[in-house]
Design goal:
Helices cover about 30% and strands about 25% of the residues. It contains 7 helices and 9 strands, in the order αβββαβααββαββαβα. It has a 9-stranded mixed sheet, with helices on both faces. The longest helix has 16 residues. It is an alpha/beta fold.
Length: about 240
Protein backbone atom coordinates (compact mmCIF):
# COMPACT_ATOMS: atom_id res chain seq x y z
CA UNK A 1 0.00 0.00 0.00
CA UNK A 2 1.21 3.48 -0.86
CA UNK A 3 1.07 6.32 1.66
CA UNK A 4 -1.39 8.95 0.43
CA UNK A 5 -0.29 11.17 3.31
CA UNK A 6 2.95 11.66 1.39
CA UNK A 7 0.99 13.34 -1.44
CA UNK A 8 -0.92 15.52 1.01
CA UNK A 9 2.29 16.50 2.81
CA UNK A 10 4.05 17.37 -0.44
CA UNK A 11 1.11 19.54 -1.47
CA UNK A 12 1.01 21.29 1.90
CA UNK A 13 4.76 21.93 1.74
CA UNK A 14 4.28 23.84 -1.51
CA UNK A 15 2.23 26.53 0.22
CA UNK A 16 -0.28 26.64 -2.62
CA UNK A 17 -4.03 27.24 -2.29
CA UNK A 18 -5.57 23.76 -1.97
CA UNK A 19 -9.24 23.40 -2.75
CA UNK A 20 -10.75 20.26 -1.21
CA UNK A 21 -13.21 19.14 -3.89
CA UNK A 22 -14.17 15.79 -2.37
CA UNK A 23 -13.26 12.96 -0.04
CA UNK A 24 -13.16 9.24 -0.86
CA UNK A 25 -12.76 6.81 2.06
CA UNK A 26 -11.20 9.62 4.11
CA UNK A 27 -8.74 10.41 1.31
CA UNK A 28 -8.99 14.08 0.24
CA UNK A 29 -9.12 14.96 -3.44
CA UNK A 30 -7.60 18.37 -4.07
CA UNK A 31 -7.74 20.87 -6.89
CA UNK A 32 -5.13 23.60 -7.23
CA UNK A 33 -5.55 26.70 -9.35
CA UNK A 34 -2.36 28.48 -10.41
CA UNK A 35 -2.78 31.96 -11.80
CA UNK A 36 -0.80 35.17 -11.88
CA UNK A 37 -2.03 38.55 -10.73
CA UNK A 38 -2.66 39.43 -14.37
CA UNK A 39 -5.57 37.53 -15.84
CA UNK A 40 -4.18 34.82 -18.12
CA UNK A 41 -6.55 34.24 -21.04
CA UNK A 42 -6.03 30.48 -21.46
CA UNK A 43 -7.04 27.77 -19.02
CA UNK A 44 -5.07 24.51 -18.89
CA UNK A 45 -6.26 21.38 -17.06
CA UNK A 46 -3.77 18.80 -15.74
CA UNK A 47 -4.91 15.52 -14.17
CA UNK A 48 -3.15 12.47 -12.78
CA UNK A 49 -3.96 9.28 -10.92
CA UNK A 50 -7.21 8.37 -12.67
CA UNK A 51 -5.88 4.82 -12.65
CA UNK A 52 -4.50 4.09 -9.20
CA UNK A 53 -1.76 1.72 -10.38
CA UNK A 54 -0.20 4.43 -12.56
CA UNK A 55 1.75 6.57 -10.08
CA UNK A 56 3.95 8.40 -12.59
CA UNK A 57 1.15 10.81 -13.47
CA UNK A 58 0.72 11.79 -9.84
CA UNK A 59 4.47 12.28 -9.51
CA UNK A 60 4.54 14.42 -12.66
CA UNK A 61 1.76 16.64 -11.34
CA UNK A 62 3.54 17.10 -8.00
CA UNK A 63 6.77 18.00 -9.79
CA UNK A 64 4.90 20.48 -11.98
CA UNK A 65 3.41 22.17 -8.92
CA UNK A 66 6.80 22.30 -7.19
CA UNK A 67 8.74 23.90 -10.04
CA UNK A 68 8.91 27.57 -10.99
CA UNK A 69 6.09 28.25 -13.47
CA UNK A 70 6.39 32.05 -13.38
CA UNK A 71 6.82 32.49 -17.13
CA UNK A 72 3.99 30.09 -17.99
CA UNK A 73 1.64 31.89 -15.62
CA UNK A 74 1.97 35.02 -17.76
CA UNK A 75 0.08 33.15 -20.47
CA UNK A 76 -1.90 30.42 -18.75
CA UNK A 77 -4.03 29.64 -15.73
CA UNK A 78 -3.62 26.05 -14.59
CA UNK A 79 -6.28 23.93 -12.94
CA UNK A 80 -4.65 20.83 -11.47
CA UNK A 81 -6.11 17.67 -9.92
CA UNK A 82 -3.10 15.65 -8.74
CA UNK A 83 -4.85 12.37 -7.91
CA UNK A 84 -8.37 11.60 -9.11
CA UNK A 85 -8.41 8.07 -7.65
CA UNK A 86 -6.76 8.14 -4.20
CA UNK A 87 -8.16 4.77 -3.10
CA UNK A 88 -6.74 3.10 -6.20
CA UNK A 89 -3.43 4.91 -5.69
CA UNK A 90 -3.09 3.74 -2.10
CA UNK A 91 -4.03 0.14 -2.92
CA UNK A 92 -2.11 0.03 -6.23
CA UNK A 93 -5.15 -0.94 -8.30
CA UNK A 94 -6.48 0.47 -11.56
CA UNK A 95 -10.07 0.82 -10.34
CA UNK A 96 -11.71 2.60 -7.41
CA UNK A 97 -12.91 0.92 -4.21
CA UNK A 98 -16.01 -0.41 -6.00
CA UNK A 99 -13.98 -2.05 -8.74
CA UNK A 100 -15.04 0.61 -11.26
CA UNK A 101 -12.67 1.93 -13.91
CA UNK A 102 -13.14 5.68 -13.50
CA UNK A 103 -11.81 6.25 -17.00
CA UNK A 104 -14.78 4.34 -18.44
CA UNK A 105 -17.40 6.06 -16.30
CA UNK A 106 -17.76 9.71 -17.31
CA UNK A 107 -21.15 9.12 -18.90
CA UNK A 108 -22.65 8.52 -15.45
CA UNK A 109 -23.07 10.59 -12.30
CA UNK A 110 -23.12 7.53 -10.05
CA UNK A 111 -19.35 7.10 -9.60
CA UNK A 112 -18.17 9.28 -6.74
CA UNK A 113 -14.85 10.31 -8.26
CA UNK A 114 -16.55 11.22 -11.55
CA UNK A 115 -19.17 13.32 -9.76
CA UNK A 116 -16.44 15.13 -7.81
CA UNK A 117 -14.47 15.99 -10.96
CA UNK A 118 -17.54 17.12 -12.87
CA UNK A 119 -18.69 19.39 -10.05
CA UNK A 120 -15.21 20.86 -9.63
CA UNK A 121 -14.91 21.68 -13.33
CA UNK A 122 -18.32 23.29 -13.47
CA UNK A 123 -18.63 25.13 -16.77
CA UNK A 124 -14.93 25.98 -17.12
CA UNK A 125 -13.55 25.82 -20.64
CA UNK A 126 -9.94 24.89 -21.37
CA UNK A 127 -7.55 25.46 -24.24
CA UNK A 128 -5.78 22.21 -23.35
CA UNK A 129 -6.50 19.30 -21.02
CA UNK A 130 -3.79 16.71 -20.43
CA UNK A 131 -4.29 13.45 -18.53
CA UNK A 132 -1.20 11.50 -17.42
CA UNK A 133 -1.25 7.68 -17.71
CA UNK A 134 1.14 4.76 -18.05
CA UNK A 135 1.15 1.35 -19.72
CA UNK A 136 2.47 -1.86 -18.15
CA UNK A 137 2.94 -3.56 -21.51
CA UNK A 138 4.58 -0.74 -23.47
CA UNK A 139 8.30 -0.43 -24.09
CA UNK A 140 8.13 3.24 -25.11
CA UNK A 141 5.76 6.18 -24.81
CA UNK A 142 2.74 7.03 -26.94
CA UNK A 143 -0.01 9.66 -26.99
CA UNK A 144 -3.68 10.01 -27.71
CA UNK A 145 -4.76 13.37 -29.06
CA UNK A 146 -8.13 14.97 -29.66
CA UNK A 147 -8.57 18.38 -31.25
CA UNK A 148 -11.85 19.98 -32.24
CA UNK A 149 -10.30 21.69 -35.25
CA UNK A 150 -8.45 18.46 -36.18
CA UNK A 151 -5.20 20.42 -36.59
CA UNK A 152 -3.17 17.81 -34.73
CA UNK A 153 0.23 18.58 -33.22
CA UNK A 154 0.93 15.21 -31.60
CA UNK A 155 3.51 14.22 -34.19
CA UNK A 156 5.56 17.33 -33.48
CA UNK A 157 5.23 16.78 -29.72
CA UNK A 158 6.32 13.16 -29.99
CA UNK A 159 9.33 14.15 -32.08
CA UNK A 160 10.50 16.61 -29.42
CA UNK A 161 10.05 14.40 -26.35
CA UNK A 162 11.52 11.23 -27.84
CA UNK A 163 14.85 12.57 -26.57
CA UNK A 164 13.57 11.58 -23.11
CA UNK A 165 12.75 8.04 -24.21
CA UNK A 166 11.75 6.11 -27.33
CA UNK A 167 8.32 5.97 -28.93
CA UNK A 168 6.58 2.63 -28.43
CA UNK A 169 7.04 0.44 -31.48
CA UNK A 170 3.82 -1.56 -31.02
CA UNK A 171 0.30 -0.69 -32.15
CA UNK A 172 -1.21 0.87 -29.02
CA UNK A 173 -4.89 1.19 -29.82
CA UNK A 174 -7.28 -0.93 -31.84
CA UNK A 175 -9.95 1.77 -32.09
CA UNK A 176 -7.67 4.77 -32.43
CA UNK A 177 -6.49 5.54 -35.97
CA UNK A 178 -2.90 6.69 -36.34
CA UNK A 179 -1.97 10.35 -36.57
CA UNK A 180 1.72 9.51 -36.63
CA UNK A 181 4.03 6.93 -35.10
CA UNK A 182 3.07 6.67 -31.44
CA UNK A 183 0.23 9.20 -31.79
CA UNK A 184 -3.40 8.10 -31.97
CA UNK A 185 -6.68 9.95 -32.20
CA UNK A 186 -9.12 10.15 -29.33
CA UNK A 187 -11.70 8.20 -31.31
CA UNK A 188 -15.34 9.25 -31.63
CA UNK A 189 -16.27 5.61 -30.99
CA UNK A 190 -15.20 6.10 -27.37
CA UNK A 191 -18.18 8.37 -26.72
CA UNK A 192 -17.64 10.34 -23.52
CA UNK A 193 -16.89 7.47 -21.15
CA UNK A 194 -13.24 8.40 -20.65
CA UNK A 195 -12.04 11.60 -19.00
CA UNK A 196 -10.24 12.93 -22.10
CA UNK A 197 -13.11 12.38 -24.57
CA UNK A 198 -15.54 13.77 -21.99
CA UNK A 199 -13.39 16.89 -21.70
CA UNK A 200 -13.06 17.18 -25.48
CA UNK A 201 -16.83 17.06 -25.86
CA UNK A 202 -17.78 19.40 -23.02
CA UNK A 203 -14.78 21.37 -21.75
CA UNK A 204 -11.67 21.52 -23.92
CA UNK A 205 -10.65 22.37 -27.47
CA UNK A 206 -7.60 20.11 -27.25
CA UNK A 207 -6.95 17.00 -25.16
CA UNK A 208 -3.90 14.77 -24.77
CA UNK A 209 -3.47 11.45 -22.99
CA UNK A 210 0.16 10.60 -22.30
CA UNK A 211 1.09 6.93 -21.89
CA UNK A 212 4.52 6.11 -20.47
CA UNK A 213 5.95 2.60 -20.07
CA UNK A 214 6.02 1.31 -16.51
CA UNK A 215 9.35 -0.38 -17.23
CA UNK A 216 10.95 3.07 -17.22
CA UNK A 217 12.02 4.61 -13.92
CA UNK A 218 9.48 6.81 -12.15
CA UNK A 219 11.66 9.84 -12.78
CA UNK A 220 11.88 9.17 -16.52
CA UNK A 221 8.12 8.62 -16.78
CA UNK A 222 7.42 11.87 -14.94
CA UNK A 223 9.92 13.71 -17.17
CA UNK A 224 8.14 12.42 -20.28
CA UNK A 225 4.76 13.58 -19.01
CA UNK A 226 6.11 17.05 -18.27
CA UNK A 227 7.96 17.15 -21.57
CA UNK A 228 4.71 16.53 -23.43
CA UNK A 229 2.95 19.20 -21.39
CA UNK A 230 5.62 21.83 -21.96
CA UNK A 231 5.85 21.07 -25.67
CA UNK A 232 2.06 21.14 -26.11
CA UNK A 233 1.86 24.53 -24.38
CA UNK A 234 4.08 26.02 -27.09
CA UNK A 235 1.24 25.45 -29.55
CA UNK A 236 -1.15 27.44 -27.37
Amino acid sequence: MRDYADIVNRLNDLDLPLDLIGTIHDYPIYQICLESSASAPKNILITGGVHGDEPAGVEAVLQFLARDNTELLKQFTFVVIPCVNPYGYVHDIRENSDGVDINRSFETEEVSEVAIVKEALGQTQFSLAIDFHEDYEATGFYLYEGKRDEQYVGAEIANVVKSIGPIDAEDSGEDAPDIAQGVYKVATEWGTQGLAPYLLHFHSEHVIITETPTVWSLEQRAALHLGVLDTALKYH
